[in-house]
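So, can you check?
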Amino acid sequence: MSNKIGFLAVFALVISSQIGSGIFMLPISLAPYGTYSLISWAISGFGAISLALVFASLCAKFPETGGPHIYVKHAFGSTAAFFVGWTYWVSSWVSSTAVTIASIGYLAPLFHNDIQDICLLLEIILILAIMLINLRGVTTAGRVELLLTIVKIIALLAMPIAGLFFFDRSNFIVSEEVSNFTISQTLARSTLLTLWCFIGLESATAPAGSVDNPAKTIPRAIVLGTVCVAVIYFINSLSIMGLISGNDLANSKAPYVDAVKIMLPGNWHLIVSVVAFIVSVSNLNAWFLADGQVTLGLAKDKLMPQFFAKRNKYDAPFWGIILSTLGVLVLLILTSNKSFAEQVTSIIDISVVSFLFIYLACSLAFLKVNIQEKNCCKFLIGGVAVLFCCWIIYETSISTLLMSSLFPLSGTLVYLLWYHKLKT
């Protein structure tokens, strides 16, 4: 039996790595922007697709295990590659922690909201379950991802399409605060929110060595998957914002639950809890699958200690998965303290900015490796991706940019210890 995954599994990985728990909460943040939020989805979707084309082209040229650091290595050398790979790996711990907390939180209604005392236990059980799935190898993790993604797509299309029958355009209200901004400022701020939902579009490039015909399979999956994600996000946002008035939506704690209560009587809203849990778990599994492959790729390139290159009998990168699990478990224990948990949102924002720097580095690498081809189309795609990343970074506060620098700096000690192995 082949230990490699095909197009459908990679396609599922692309979708699940982008669509996570944020889809259920984003309407709250977008509510004050009214109709501007729909325009921002178009802008961020265009930017995400340009980045998808960048990664698709790079993966076709360099179909190797590891993802982003591979492309930076070919363009800028091993030192830059190490810090890109390390930043990607460590940043994903924070994202996985937040997704785990959200996953269990969505189950609260099933326990009559009396879940606080066992939250940490359930979070640990979930993480260990995801770890065991990924230790069974890429094939098993890919099959689980495909199954979860099918359920996720059906649910995330069925609910908003049903909501369109209750659509009311008068619900799109621009708040007084937002109305004081210029159009440029309004679109910039709302686009920042919507773009964050596309973080993870590159994750399918990480397991290239475990994919059938990666030079063709991964590029197709990245582009088609990102287009599908953009459509799903847009339909969901349009439906929820057309179903619930802007003021009510801005004050909602669970917009999808409120939406189902409007459409259907009884306890049908409990289905939302189950769907949200499935969506979050598939997102978590996708991140774990990518994490293991990233550390494996770094070790293969001698940019990380060689024990990361060891695989178990299922051909899974054992130590990469184990250390990722431990990193998330530590963060889960720390965030079990309520006062610290309140800081998670800002930490996530910082990790997202670090991903933007990775995207910028890969976009610049794309331009450099294609400079001799004199292909106008590729230069246009790369130029759009670079300008898009720079615009988002420019709109980010200085304090967040400085805090995000802690992710690459955290790898300095490992880099110094392995400096003699980082030569190209």
The first helix runs from residue 7 to 18. The chain is about 70% helix and 0% strand. The chain has one domain: 7-421. The radius of gyration is 21 Å.
